[in-house]
Amino acid sequence: MKEQEKHTFTIRPACREDAALVFYFIRQIAIYEHMLDEVKNTEEMVRKVVFDEKHAEAVIAEEDGKPVGFALFFTTYSTFVGRPGIHLEDLFVEKEHRGKGYGKLLLQHVAKLAVERGCGRLEWCCLDWNEPSLRFYRSLGASSLDEWIDFRLQGDTLKKVAGR
Fold this sequence. Notes:
The chain is an alpha+beta fold. It has five helices and five strands. It has a five-stranded mixed β-sheet with strand order 1-2-3-4-5, with helices on both faces. Helix 3 links the parallel strand 4 and strand 5. Helix 1 (19-32) crosses helix 2.
């Protein structure tokens, strides 16, 4: 029997110099979700919005010092709970590194941040066809909010509603 390789896995906060890497992972998750044509973001926008304006945070997962995944999240507020929360916008692990527990470690890392920050919730969305992710989230005890329907205003419709 072949001895399993040992790897060093770490999670670190992303920094401004990681803007290209964060953008790369955003594009990779969009490819996985068959939504690359919807990505309007750029590396420069990531640098500005995430790292300069600090509207979101990201962490980088590394195996033996090489980036293999990321999580991007931002603070929310629950009027019912009366406390902040975290919305996990993206969690992604490169295909060749899946099945090693890295996705779970990334989610646990963000959950730990939520607890440390006194958050009442950690929430995210998942596409209804993404069975591997749905099984993974349910295996952790996460519940889906089937009674809620997400709505979105964007582009010209957003401008129209805003009276612009």
